[in-house]
Specification:
14 helices; binds 3'-phosphate-adenosine-5'-phosphate sulfate; alpha/beta; single chain
Length: about 300
């Protein structure tokens, strides 16, 4: 059965996870608490990676909690139907997740002392990751083809609508002291340094050995092997595990045709590039993507890591 998205204030949502009421509740009635921390992302940007990191910070690196409680229960999405029923079980200080764009985020946040960690990722890699995820998850539209999905992504005709609008919306907060942003690529390149920066933002002190534990227990390998974090426990009703896996691949091992270019090879070595998009985009698609990207992002006046790749 094909899934039809509905819109709430101009943004696409799936009736399998959201309703007008759940979104209205999240935006207008949900009570943010001063000691809350929100992980906010456009889908496939590294949300669950950040949940794992913050879960480990809470336990000073001890993985027992991560190894015994499903990741979505440790940090529910406060705008989803399921998430709203799970929040009651979260012990403060809460770490909650959200994919909401800036203009429909919880109003009560803006008068609170709560904090937001916004994770960004190269939108080309998001497109690829989301394409595979949409193939697996039954409550999202199943893309007919990569070509069609490619166009839908650029036009914002996907769940949560436009990546460009999401990023531009949230970047209005970039100078707010309770807002911290970091890229998936930074996490990938220097997880330890990223954990240290996150601790500084949250006012969390960790010893060297505890930092090591956080880093080791939030690695791709550790998360992929942890059934509480790798989504294999999610019901078949939601996720068709025969069509792929949530933790698709360790991007650091992807070698693409494009990487044979010496400049790119050098970048990989020195910058730890991810970039699975290179295995999927044609040259023409890449040029088209860049054109749309430049047009849509031209007013932002920010330069991201992936723009030099
Ligand atoms: S979701 O469904 O929107 O909440 O997905 P999200 O968690 O934001 O993003 C999923 C992608 O993050 C990758 N991931 C990781 N990469 C590196 N290291 C760690 N520890 C890690 N954990 C999750 C996951 O594999 C998805 O990326 P792709 O490219 O699909 O593999």
């Amino acid at each position: 059965m094909s899934v039809q998205y509905f819109t709430y204030k101009g943004v696409n949502f799936s009736p399998g996870s959201y309703s007008h009421e759940s979104l209205n509740f999240a935006e207008n009635e949900f009570q943010v608490q001063d000691d809350d921390v929100y992980i906010v992302t456009y889908p496939k940007s590294g949300t669950n990676w950040m949940i794992e990191i913050l879960s480990l910070l809470r336990t000073n690196g001890d993985p027992t909690w991560c190894n015994s409680v499903p990741i979505w229960r440790r940090s529910p999405w406060f705008e989803t139907l399921k998430g709203q029923s799970q929040i009651i079980d979260v012990t403060p200080p809460r770490v909650l997740s959200s994919h909401l764009p800036f203009h429909i985020f919880a109003k009560s946040f803006f008068t609170s002392k709560a904090k937001i960690i916004y994770v960004l990722r190269n939108p080309k890699d998001i497109l690829v990751s989301l394409f595979y995820f949409c193939k697996m998850i039954r409550i999202f539209k199943d893309p007919e083809s990569f070509e069609e999905f490619f166009e839908d992504f650029l036009q914002g005709n996907v769940l949560y609508s436009s990546w460009f609008d999401h990023v531009k919306g949230w970047m209005q907060m970039k100078t707010n002291k309770n807002f911290f942003y970091i890229t998936y690529e930074e996490l990938h390149q220097d997880l330890r340094g990223s954990v240290v920066k996150i601790c500084e933002f949250l006012g969390k002190e960790l010893h060297e050995a505890q930092t090591d534990l956080v880093v080791n227990n939030s690695s791709f390998k550790a998360m992929k092997e942890n059934k509480m974090s790798n989504y294999t426990l999610l019901s078949q009703k939601y996720l068709d595990q025969t069509k792929g896996s949530f933790m698709r691949k360790d991007q650091s091992f992807s070698i693409a045709q494009w990487d044979l270019n010496p400049w790119v090879l050098q970048s990989r070595v020195f910058q730890g590039i991810t970039g699975d998009w290179k295995n999927h985009f044609t040259v023409a698609q890449n040029e088209y993507f860049d054109k749309v990207y430049q047009e849509k992002m031209k007013d932002l006046n920010m330069k991201f890591f992936w723009e030099d790749i």
